[in-house]
Design a protein that fits this description.
The structure holds two protein chains of two kinds. By secondary structure, chain A is mainly alpha-helical. Chain A has helices spanning 6-25, 34-39, 46-57, 60-73, 77-102, 109-116, 119-151, 156-171, 176-204, 209-214, 228-248, 250-258, 264-292, 304-312, 315-353, 360-383, 389-411, 417-435, 443-469, 471-489, 497-518, 528-538, 540-545. The chains are: A mainly alpha, B mainly alpha.
């Protein structure tokens, strides 16, 4: 298989990170202010916002997993990865507009939750975000190490270190502004690579003739667009997981708070199309490999893309692919660093330590030190190849459990702090029971969880309908879907534990949150106080900023 | 499904990605001009 020499690999990596660093010098200010460091001006234009949203949502795993899905599930495989991931970007924007309307000056979603409910809900969101972002950093640095290890004589750890130092170097000084600014170039590299590489590999493998000779390599299910296995094992669990990720992850919220308010919709629609086309397109490489009878090296599906590139592309094209993957993982890693810094700056330093009276200069340095610490942790975890899959499962569960309470809290004035926290904790515990089968999934227990999961599925569809068509449509469509699904899910979902557990988190949190809310006798919440409370937090800043 | 439609199924994605690429590049030029005119940074 093709490999770069050590010198070539070093030149490519240093050129990539060096150019990115030089780009950020164009926007660097001698004295960055705290707000810009977290969400820029709050009026970022369409091009930068759409590109940044797309680049952040695409990480290295997007390529590997989409191709793996295409290889494993055949014709529909890439769709069951890329389409649902893309739709979640679209799903977020109606809610994003609501977040911006309630708190135009917010920096984090946890900050809004603090204004709505207090510290408990804020720390649940902020805590899960910190863990989630550190894991994401680790995964991206691991991808860099693996790529460098496969395509060059450099070692895995050297690849991890270069990526860690490279990303930190250009994000450290200007924070979120650097992240957004560099995302544009990184996305363009990804698009160009996808546009060139997919057709080249397709025609190298024989073009349309590949379908005539290669379809025999597909099982009947792989040859069907409506494969139930692909839906139940890939599409549905991924759909549920990315919905939680979209609401729970600060990298998405941060871009919602940064884009000019009237550009939220076009930016997110463009990001949806951009993400879908790039990720599904690269997922097609897995399908092509399956059609051509390619066996992944060492049986590891993550090797498919580098293997296809090294086998069928010229060295120049391999460089392009290399840059594309480094660009994708770097754009997500710099977003994670920016997200982590804004959470620590706002939710820990601003709210908990300085009690709403932060020193802006100290605040910016808190953000920078957070980046250094997070990069160090990401590099160490990646280098040690720690198995933190279980931690990722817990973070995903927590995010799944918060989706309904977060959205309900920002639309339904009667949702209380007790309803929020209790529903999240109960849903999380029930998820753990289902996911790790702490109770045998048989008989009454299985039916109990299947009912909760069916409610969860109805909640997911209901929330999506609510976002686009309003409350009545959300309630009706969600209820009808739940009733329809119950005829199939009871007695069936117990065989798909990952899906059952994920949906349980949604169903249980929605059920408990709704129950505690409608039985509460507390007066309705005044939504306009959210903006007042978030603004109050920033009130100290303009006075002190002038002294910078 | 015919070979033609399967080929289209594989190649439609880079085509759509090209459209996104053009949209973003044109939008960037417009944003840069607006930023220059107003004296503000792009980000």
């Amino acid at each position: 298989m093709f490999q770069f020499s050590t010198t070539s690999a070093m030149i490519i990596l240093f050129a990539f990170y060096g150019l990115t660093f030089l780009l950020t010098l164009r926007i660097g200010r001698r004295q960055e202010n705290a707000d810009s460091y977290m969400v820029s001006s709050g009026s970022v234009g369409f091009s930068m916002s759409a590109a940044s949203m797309t680049a952040t949502w695409i990480w290295a795993a997007s390529f590997y997993a989409a191709a793996s899905s295409g290889y494993k599930y055949g014709l529909s495989g890439a769709i069951h990865y890329g389409l649902w991931g893309a739709l979640m970007i679209l799903f977020i924007y109606p809610f994003g507009r609501r977040f911006r309307k309630l708190a135009p000056d917010a920096h984090t979603l946890a900050e809004i939750m603090h204004a709505r409910h207090g510290s408990a809900s804020q720390l649940m969101l902020a805590g899960s975000n910190v863990v989630g972002s550190v894991i994401s950093l680790m995964v991206n640095f691991t991808a860099a190490g693996a790529l460098v290890d496969i395509l060059s004589p450099l070692s895995f750890v050297q690849g991890v270190l270069i990526a860690g130092v490279g990303v930190l170097s250009y994000t450290f000084w200007s924070g979120f502004r650097s992240s957004v600014f560099t995302d544009f170039g990184q996305l363009i590299a990804m698009v160009v690579a996808a546009v060139i590489i997919i057709p080249i590999i397709f025609f190298k493998l024989g073009g349309p003739e590949l379908f005539e000779v290669g379809m025999v390599n597909l099982t009947p299910e792989q040859a069907s667009f409506y494969s139930p296995t692909a839906i139940l094992e890939q599409g549905a669990p991924f759909f549920v997981a990315v919905l939680a990720y979209a609401i729970g992850n600060q990298t998405i919220a941060q871009r919602l708070f940064a884009v000019r308010e009237d550009l939220i919709k076009p930016s997110f629609i463009t990001a949806t199309i951009g993400y879908g086309s790039i990720v599904i397109g690269l997922g097609m490489l897995g399908l092509l490999a399956l059609l051509a009878g390619v066996e992944p090296i060492n049986g590891d599906l993550n090797n498919l893309i580098p293997q296809m590139a090294a086998t069928y592309l010229s060295p120049i094209m391999v460089v392009l692919l290399f840059v594309m993957i480094i660009g994708s993982l770097s754009s997500t890693a710099d977003s994670d660093l920016s997200a982590l810094s804004s959470i620590v700056m706002t939710d820990i330093y601003g709210k908990q330590i300085s009690k709403n009276k932060p020193n802006p200069t100290t605040m910016v340095w808190v953000g920078r030190m957070t980046m250094v610490t997070a990069t160090t942790l990401g590099v160490i975890f990646a280098s040690l190849k720690l198995d933190i899959l279980s931690m990722l499962i817990f973070v995903g569960a927590l995010w799944g459990a918060i989706v309904f309470p977060v959205i309900a809290s920002l639309y339904w004035s009667r949702v209380t702090n007790l309803a929020f926290t209790s529903s999240v904790i109960i849903a999380f515990l029930l998820f753990v029971v289902a996911r790790f089968e702490l109770l045998a999934m048989t008989g009454v227990v299985a039916v109990f969880f299947e009912i909760l999961a069916t409610i969860g599925a109805a909640v997911v569809i209901g929330l999506m309908s609510f976002g686009f068509f309003g409350r009545r449509a959300g309630l009706v469509i969600g209820a009808l879907f739940g009733i329809f699904l119950s005829f199939y899910s009871i007695g069936f979902l117990r065989d798909y534990i990952v899906l059952l557990a994920s949906l349980t988190a949604y169903g249980a949190s929605a059920f408990v949150c709704t129950l505690l809310t409608i039985t509460s006798k507390k007066p309705p919440f005044e939504f306009k106080t959210i903006d007042e409370r978030v603004v109050e937090f920033h009130a100290e800043q303009p006075q002190t900023m002038e002294n910078l | 499904m015919s070979t033609f439609w399967l080929t289209a199924y594989v190649l439609i994605w880079p085509l759509i990605a090209s459209g996104v690429f053009l949209t973003l590049c044109v939008a960037l030029i417009i944003d840069m001009r607006a930023a220059k005119k107003s004296g503000k940074s792009l980000v």
